[in-house]
Specification:
Layout lengths: L19 E2 L2 E3 L2 E3 L4 E5 L6 E6 L3 H19 L3 H17 L1 H12 L3 H22 L7 E4 L4 E9 L2 E5 L5 H14 L3 E5 L6 H12 L7 E3 L4 H9 L6 E5 L2 H11 L5 E5 L4 E5 L5 H13 L9 E7 H16 L19 H16 L3 E4 L21 E4 L6 H4 L6 E7 L2 H8 L4 E2 L1 E5 L3 H10 L4 E4 L14 E2 L2 E2 L4 H7 L1 E9 L1
Parallel strand pairs: 1-5, 8-9, 8-11, 9-10, 11-12, 13-14, 13-19, 14-17, 16-17, 19-20
Antiparallel strand pairs: 2-3, 4-5, 6-7, 7-23, 12-22, 15-16, 18-21
This protein binds nicotinamide-adenine-dinucleotide.
The site of nicotinamide-adenine-dinucleotide has 31 residues, from helix 7 and helix 8.
C-alpha cells in the first residue's frame, strides 16, 4: 500500500498485518463508511481488508458529486481530458509493483501475473482511450443537393454507473473508466466487494494526479445493496456491467423500465477446437494457459476442448502431463503458475462441479482428488485446488454446459469439422473460442461458423483494444473497443445547417 500523503484525508497509517480499512471516494475525498465487510486474503483465508458496506445513502452522495462535476468535465476538450488520464497513467505505472502485489494479495493471482498482465493493462487502458478517443469524436457531411452541412456531436450522457467483477479487478474497472471519462461523462464505479483494494489505491492515484474532484467516484460494497442502488439510480442513464450472466439478467430486468443504456459483459463456456493438423506443442502450451491461468478465472478461459479423434489419445496424455506439472502455491512465489481461487464459496462451487462430473459419468484424469496438493503451513486454509482435466462427459452434462469459472477443463473427441461446429455452438453462451489448425482456410471457415464474440486461431487472449470485445447469447449485450465504447458512452446528435 502507498504511504499516507497529505491528500489522503480520512486515512491513517496502519500497523503491519492489521486489515486495510477502505473508504469510499466521493467528490475527490476519502469518505469513511460506518459498516464494513471482511475481505479475505485467498492464499491464507485471513481477513486482510475491511470494505465499506455502502448502501443507498453513499450511492446518492456519489451520484450527486458526479452530477455536480459533469458540467465542468464535459465542457473540457477531449485533449484536456486526455492529459488528465495520461497523468493518472504515469503515476499508476510508477507504482506498478505495489499495485501488482496488492492485486495478487486481494485476488489470489501470482504477483508475476499481475505485474505483467493486470497492472500494465490498466495503464494501457488509460493511455489507449486517452489517445484514441479524441480522433473519433465527430463526423460531418456536406450535401450540395440539399444545400446543407450535417455534423454529429457525440455527447456524453451524464453519470455513468460502472460495475466490475473480482477476477481482473482494476484491469476491467479501468477498461470502463477510461472511455467513459474520455467521452466526457462523470463516473460512479462499484468494484467487486471481493476485490476492492486496488480500486481504493487508485483513488489515491487520482488525488495525487490532481484529477478534478467528483469526476470519478468509487463506492465500495455488495451487489444487492450498493450495486443495486447504483444501477437503479434515476440520475444514472447508462450502466456498464461485467460479471455473471445471472447478475446481468437481473440488471437488464431492473433497468428496463427506466430505459437505461446497458452494456453487459457476462459469463462464458469457451471451447477450443484442436484439429489433427495443428502444431501440437504450441497448442498444448496455449491450452495450459487458456485453461488454468488465473486459476481458470478469466471469462475467456477454455473449459471445453474438442480434439480430433486421431489425435485424442496422444493429446490427452501430453496435456495431462503438462497439467500435472503445474506448480500451485503462494502467489508471491515467482515460479508458481496457479495461486488460490478467489474465495471459499467460489472454491466450493468449483469443486461441486467435479462431483457433478463423476455423477454424470466423467473420469477425472488429473487434478483435484487425483494428486495431492502440497502447500506450505501458512497456506493450508487458502482456497487452492489443482488444475483438473475431465473426460468422458456428454455434451449435455453440467460440466459441458454451465460456466464453472475455475481450473477445470473437459476434453472430448470429435470426427468432422461440421460435427464439431454444431457441438461447440450447443451451449447457451458465446463469449469466445479458439481453433488450432495449420490449415488457414479451415481456420477462417470454422471461425465464421462459431457463435462467439471472438475466435482466436492458433492463439488465445491476444487483445487489440481497437477490436470489438463482447459476447453473444447469454455471454453479453454490446461491445467494448475504441469505436464501440465511444458509441456506448455517448449519444450522437445530428446538427443540420442550411448553407
Ligand atoms: P457477479 O455477477 O457476482 O458480480 C459482478 C459485480 O456485480 C460485482 O461488483 C457485484 O457486487 C455486482 N452485483 C452483484 N449483484 C448485483 C446487483 N443486484 N445489482 C448490481 N450489481 C450487482 O460476478 P463475479 O462473480 O464478480 O464475476 C465472475 C463472473 O464475471 C463470471 O461469470 C465471469 O465469466 C464474468 N466475467 C465476464 C467478463 C466478460 O468480459 N464477459 C469478464 C470478467 C468476468
Amino acid at each position: 500500500m502507498p504511504s499516507t500523503t497529505r491528500k489522503n484525508r480520512g486515512t491513517k497509517r496502519r500497523k503491519m498485518d492489521e486489515p486495510i480499512v477502505i473508504n469510499n471516494f466521493i467528490g475527490g475525498v476519502m469518505v469513511p463508511c460506518q459498516d464494513h465487510i471482511d475481505s479475505h486474503d485467498p492464499s491464507t483465508g485471513l481477513v486482510w481488508a475491511k470494505i465499506p458496506d455502502s448502501g443507498q445513502a453513499e450511492v446518492d452522495a456519489a451520484v450527486n458529486a458526479a452530477q455536480a462535476a459533469f458540467e465542468g468535465w464535459s465542457c473540457k476538450s477531449a485533449q484536456t481530458r486526455a492529459n488528465h488520464l495520461l497523468k493518472v497513467a504515469d503515476i499508476l505505472e510508477s507504482r506498478l509493483e505495489e499495485f501488482a502485489v496488492a492485486e495478487s494479495r486481494d485476488q489470489g493471482k501470482p504477483v508475476w501475473l499481475a505485474r505483467i498482465i493486470d497492472i500494465p493493462r490498466c495503464v494501457l487502458n488509460l493511455r489507449h482511450f486517452a489517445h484514441a478517443i479524441p480522433h473519433h469524436l465527430n463526423t460531418s457531411n456536406v450535401n450540395p443537393e440539399m444545400g446543407v452541412v450535417n455534423y454529429t456531436l457525440r455527447e456524453p450522457q451524464g453519470v455513468a454507473g460502472l460495475i466490475s467483477p473480482w477476477n481482473l479487478p482494476l484491469y476491467l474497472l479501468t477498461f470502463k473508466l477510461a472511455p467513459a471519462l474520455m467521452c466526457g461523462n462523470t463516473v460512479v464505479a462499484k468494484p467487486s466487494e471481493m476485490t476492492s483494494v486496488t480500486a481504493y489505491m487508485f483513488c489515491k492515484v487520482l488525488q495525487d494526479a490532481d484529477f478534478p474532484a467528483g469526476v470519478v467516484n468509487i463506492v465500495f460494497g455488495r451487489g444487492p445493496s450498493a450495486g443495486q442502488a447504483l444501477i437503479t439510480h434515476p440520475q444514472v442513464p447508462l450502466v456498464s456491467f461485467t460479471g455473471s450472466t445471472l447478475t446481468g439478467k437481473f440488471i437488464a430486468q431492473a433497468t428496463a423500465p427506466m430505459f437505461k443504456k446497458l452494456s453487459l459483459e457476462m459469463g462464458g463456456k469457451n471451447a477450443a477446437v484442436v484439429f489433427d493438423d495443428c502444431d501440437m506443442e504450441s497448442c498444448i502450451a496455449t491450452l495450459k494457459r487458456s485453461s488454468f491461468i488465473n486459476s481458470g478465472q478469466v471469462c475467456l478461459c477454455t473449459s471445453r476442448i474438442f480434439v480430433q479423434k486421431s489425435l485424442f489419445k496422444d493429446f490427452l496424455e501430453k496435456f495431462t502431463a503438462v497439467a500435472r506439472e503445474v506448480k500451485i502455491g503462494p502467489p508471491s512465489d515467482k515460479d508458481v503458475f496457479m495461486g488460490p481461487l478467489n474465495s471459499k464459496p467460489h472454491l466450493e462451487k468449483v469443486l461441486r462441479y467435479i462431483s457433478y462430473a463423476v455423477e454424470d459419468g466423467g473420469q477425472v484424469l488429473c487434478g483435484h482428488g487425483v494428486e495431492i496438493l502440497d502447500l506450505p503451513p501458512q497456506n493450508k486454509e487458502g482456497y487452492f485446488m489443482r488444475p483438473t482435466i475431465i473426460t468422458g462427459l456428454s455434451d449435455k452434462s453440467r460440466c459441458m454446459q454451465e460456466e464453472i469459472f475455475g481450473p477445470i477443463t473437459c476434453v472430448t473427441p470429435f470426427d468432422t469439422e461440421e460435427e464439431v461446429i454444431t457441438r461447440v455452438n450447443d451451449t447457451p453462451y458465446g463469449l469466445c473460442a479458439s481453433v488450432f489448425t495449420s490449415n488457414l482456410a479451415r481456420g477462417h471457415r470454422v471461425a465464421h461458423k462459431l457463435k462467439a464474440g471472438t475466435v482466436w486461431t492458433n492463439c488465445w487472449l491476444v487483445r487489440d483494444l481497437d477490436m470489438p470485445f463482447g459476447g453473444v447469447k447469454k455471454s453479453g449485450l454490446g461491445r467494448e473497443s475504441t469505436q464501440d465504447s465511444l458509441e456506448f458512452y455517448t449519444e450522437a446528435k445530428t446538427v443540420c445547417i442550411k448553407i
